[in-house]
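tool_call predict_complex ligand=nicotinamide-adenine-dinucleotide
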Amino acid sequence: MRIVMIGSGYVGLVSGACFADFGHQVVCVDKDEAKIDRLMQGGIPIYEPGLEDLVARNVATGRLDFTVDLTGPVARADVVFIAVGTPARRGDGHADLSYVYAAAREIAGALNGFTVIVTKSTVPVGTGDEVERIIREVNPDAEFAVASNPEFLREGAAIEDFKRPDRIVIGLEDERARPVMEEVYRPLYLNQAPIQFTGRRTSELIKYAANAFLAMKITYINEVAELCEQVGADVQQVARGIGLDNRIGGKFLHAGPGYGGSCFPKDTLALVKTAEDAGTPIRLIETTVAVNEARKRAMARKVIAACGGSVRGKTIGILGLTFKPNTDDMRDAPSLSIIQALQDSGAVIRAFDPEGMSAARTMLRDVEFVSSPYATAEDAAAVVIVTEWDAFRALDLERLKAEMAGNALVDLRNIYRPDVAERAGFSYVSIGRPGPMTDEPLSIAAE
Ligand code: NAD
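tool_result ok
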């Protein structure tokens, strides 16, 4: 199959490289020239484990190519995926579809022969209808079908998720697209990945319903964590106790500082808006959004309380800036709100992140970025673990403590045992757990 991927970001580049690895002929397009230049020189514009090797391997075989000009590749393509961004629209929270529609217009002008156009971007119900209308308007003679194929990969585990998905969802209104999509995913079909063919609108809604459910699950355990703190229960044990029930499942039950990232915040908002417009509000998700916003502010208050009620003029060390480990993605990371709230209360911020600092520099002001976890602790009143990078899981706590002026360790990811942290001299604060534990912490599935 000749595949074109419009948009070479976290989803487009991973999907394009994986399709090439399946044996398809893939061209990844992006309008960002710097990104394409970097890719053509063998560089990778994002941090995603394994991606550099995968891209290099497939470029070397001649199956993967990059360009800023979609015209020739689209004319030759069997399938064109749209994998551009769909951020929250400023002001109202609806998904901003301007990039999707612009891509549809550009594709329309270049079509030649029957082509399947597939929205891989997360798009609200009805977007496929509008993409179809735009293409027909721009190129009334074009032979095409528009399908929906939402992407479920997680940053940090994107290649594995793409190659071994829980399911592949494909929404069609035109049966001519079915054999083409079957061929695109044939290698996964052979691996027995479940493929769900459905209607296009249903497919579009599945993606939002899935993300909103996961965001709600995280928010639920975060509220249970609050309750645990009040009543002397341990949220990790509660999470394990409920997660072992197959009807609930152990994933996405890790209490923390609130969900963030490039998907959940914007997708929950967009679902709320779609439901409102349809006259069937989804109140559970409206509440999820509000509770999560409040949670991020509450995390800053937790740090301030750990510092004796004020952080004015005090240095706070931040460990981890990205919204989760193994990515450099800073979009809507909880660290941004937490740091802003601490700065508003007069704190001086020193931060370290293994991969997120170059993006963070463009999003945060007056933060001193340092080159090691220990350097964040210098003269600090508190060190706050915001992201659970592996690099933070086995710190020399005595050394960390020795660098500090104060003794507060605020662990928003519960990666340390309270008794271990306290033995190292810390006043240790974590999420939803009572004082020092005597029993082994139970491992629960990571998000
Ligand atoms: P991204 O911002 O990393 O990448 C989008 C890319 O599209 C950018 O490089 C941009 O320059 C390019 N682009 C925009 N308009 C273009 C055009 N007309 N022609 C060519 N290139 C164009 O975004 P992302 O994180 O890859 O997300 C893409 C979509 O996938 C979104 O709808 C998102 O919700 C969805 N999604 C993301 C993830 C994730 O983990 N990031 C997971 C599942 C689904």
